[in-house]
Amino acid sequence: MTTNIVSMPRPHDLLWGMTAEQLAADAPAWAHAALRRYAPVVVRRAPAEPGWIAVGIRGQAREQRFATWMRLDAIRRQVSPEAIVRAGRWHAHARPQWPALRALAQVAPRLAECGLAWGVTGSLGFELASGLPAVHPASDLDLLLRAPQPVSRAWAQALCAQLDGAPGRIDVQLETPCGALALREWAKGAARVLLKTASGPLLVGDPWAAARQAVA
Amino acid sequence: METLSFEFPAGQPAQGRALVGCVGSGDLEVLLEPGSVGSLTIQVVTSVNGSAARWQQVFERMFRAQSLPALNISIHDFGATPGVVRLRLEQGLEELSHA
């Protein structure tokens, strides 16, 4: 059997290839409808059996999110948040005046020189990658920053200060080798921060050493 | 948007206040302040509609095991999972005890 996986999908990657037939019969009707529209599914941060990956199906309403699992060998196409940025389609979005798009236009040059790989997730990432409408005038801009090495709280504060000047609300998640945390929380300086890991959320002191701390 | 209110029995008023959490998808902000004797009140403003029973369950499970000081807890939720809600509440109670 051949597979189109270029690399093991990571949380927030968009995957195509899951069909309505692969969905449990008791899944909501809107989830079946989404897959029939050839909507991509979003990789979730959750455990999966070998050969499977945890994904979420997005419906058109905000509360329409359905958690399920997809077979890795069903993946036909895979798009990362970074690839959405590289494709640059937001430059041609029909609603450039919406806050999420204005915010992206403003912060993209700053992020391009921040030294970390970054990407667009959330409703805007979904829409830019799939062409299916998902963004609203009230949508936040959801971004991801890859931080394989620790970044200082001072660095996070400086970046937050720059993002705070943007027209819409921006939610930046820092992806560490152990999970993801909010850039804003790291910048705030609380002793412990919330790290979302594949085995669930944890409160940790060092989000880059969480695997070690979680045992303690 | 939905606003929900809950009340549970509690002890003496807490000392001090704490603000934990984050405004952002899948997270929540929790403000804990001293309440009136014997009462723990919680107000939840959530972006997820129809979630009252789920919140009630999370709170009951958490407060059954421990007796809490009297508090007014104000929660601003952005679609957090019950696991995240529990951790944020624990974090807030922990900060109060250090305050």
Describe this protein's structure.
The complex is a heterodimer of chains A (216) and B (99). Chain A has helices spanning 29-36, 81-87, 99-112, 122-130, 153-164, 183-188, 210-215, and strands at 14-16, 41-43, 52-58, 65-71, 77-79, 118-120, 141-146, 170-176, 179-182, 193-197, 200-204. In chain A, 29% of the residues lie in helices and 25% in strands. In chain A, the strands form three sheets. A five-stranded antiparallel sheet of chain A has the order 4-3-2-1-5. In chain A, strands 6-7-8-9 form a four-stranded mixed sheet. Chain A has a two-stranded antiparallel sheet with strand order 10-11. Chain B has helices spanning 52-65, 82-98; strands at residues 2-9, 18-21, 28-34, 39-46, 71-77. In chain B, strand 4, helix 1 (52-65) and strand 5 form a beta-alpha-beta unit. The interface between A and B is medium-sized, with 18 and 19 residues.
Which chains have the largest interface?
A-B, 18 and 19 residues
Computed structural class of chain B: alpha+beta
The percent range for strand residues of chain A is 15-25%
Strand order of the largest sheet of chain A: 4-3-2-1-5
Number of DSSP E strands of chain B: 5
The helix content of chain A, as a percent range, equals: 25-40%
Individual helix count of chain A = 7
The DSSP helix count of chain B reads 2
User: What's the overall geometry of chain B?
Assistant: globular
Radius of gyration based on Cα positions of chain B:
12 Å
Uncertain spans of chain A: none
- Shape verdict of chain A: globular
The oligomeric state is heterodimer
- Count of all domains of chain A: 2
Main sheet: strands, sense, barrel of chain B: 5 strands, mixed
